[in-house]
Specification:
190 residues, mainly alpha, Endonuclease III, domain 1, two-stranded parallel sheet, 2 strands, globular
């Protein structure tokens, strides 16, 4: 099986690449999970976060935004003591604030998925990169979403993090054309 070269040879990375990355997501809980993980990743490698993912799932109550939105100072302090996650107070507190805003967006648009997919008119953007150098780290869509989320009060979700979210959740297909997942993901996008 040919793969995008960024997934290297780590089994966790390969599994993520082969089963999740680029598959269109419409489930709000999954969108919330990726937003939390991607904002935690800022300044770190994605592999580091994938290795900590199970700890995040436990501490973030299965990434239920209603439960996370209710986290208080005691929960933050407990999370800061857990070496299974990135122990950065600002990122943890931002994730709680972001959960509250996530719920507001759900209420306004019926779901967070509806909110997000409207930026691409409900259809994934299919790119045809031949090399990793042809894959951007941001675009006008990620700029617009990041700007809108920031205006609503979300934090740690700049345009590059949002672009990574769009790639991960299938709003953008950036698998290399030589990767066997490019065509598979494209078929899932119809």
């Amino acid at each position: 099986m040919s793969r995008c070269p960024w997934c290297l040879s780590d089994p966790i990375y390969i599994d993520y690449h082969d089963h999740e990355w680029g598959v269109p997501v419409y489930d709000d809980r999954v969108h919330f999970e990726f937003l939390v993980l991607e904002s935690a990743q800022a300044g770190l490698s994605w592999l580091t976060i994938l290795r900590k993912r199970d700890h995040y799932r436990r501490l973030y109550e299965g990434f239920d935004p209603v439960k996370v939105a209710a986290f208080g100072p005691e929960k933050v302090e407990a999370m800061l003591q857990d070496p299974g996650i990135v122990r950065n107070r600002k990122k943890i507190e931002a994730s709680i604030t972001n959960a509250r805003i996530f719920l507001e967006i759900q209420h306004e648009f019926g779901s967070f998925s509806n909110y997000l997919w409207r930026f691409v008119d409900g259809r994934p953007l299919i790119h045809y990169p031949k090399t990793l150098e042809e894959v951007p780290c941001e675009n006008s869509v990620s700029d617009a979403i990041s700007r809108d989320l920031k205006s609503r009060g979300m934090k740690f979700l700049g345009t590059k993090i949002i672009y990574a979210h769009l790639q991960a959740t299938g709003l953008i297909n950036d698998h290399l054309v030589s990767c066997s997942r490019h065509e598979i993901v494209q078929r899932l996008s119809k």
